[in-house]
Amino acid sequence: MLNLFDKETLVSADKALVGRDEAMQIAEPHVILKNPLTLSADELVEQGLSQALFGLGCFWGAEKHFWSLPGVHTTAAGYAGGFTTNPTYQEVCSGQTGHTEVVWLAFDPIQLSYERLLKEFWQAHNPTQGMRQGNDKGTQYRSAIYAYSDAQIQAAEQSKTHYQTMLKEQEHPVITTEIKTAPQFYYAEDYHQQYLAKNPDGYCGLGGTGVCY
What we know:
single chain, Peptide Methionine Sulfoxide Reductase, Chain A, oxidoreductase, Met_Sox_Rdtase_MsrA_dom, MsrA_MetSO_reductase, L-methionine:thioredoxin-disulfide S-oxidoreductase activity, EC 1.8.4.11
């Protein structure tokens, strides 16, 4: 087990756990939205849906926040941004995968814009805390926006600049959110999917700065 200092330092590719070939098995459909949790690129196009991928701390509360928005078709908890193939929760928590906890979502861009999702992202958590989110400490809790297009990258960068201005006015630190092209998304274990729907009194570490976008 790594100590806390190591868990707040990103592991390098050559030292990360290898992982496995078998993908995580999850149940369908979404507990709340009743739509599939898995959609291929072709299915997204056929249904006129767009996708987004965000990391904002523990994925339990983050997923609930996004599935509650009108226009969201489905959501899933998972891992991304690291090196380990098909990681387990225990491996991600060890700090030896490089992954952060994320929420993947498919949404109807006619009902819900990507810009609105970015606003929700910034306001729902504290994007200035580096390798932690509140009391949750470790690289797996870092803030991240993983974009599926150049347009999403541009929108994310512009929204970051805007929100940094808002934060600076309230004397908050610099945003540490990483913005990158979307890497491979790995589904988390089935018990993590829609966790707060299955466990209404479960832990939710989601909390923003109080600064409006």
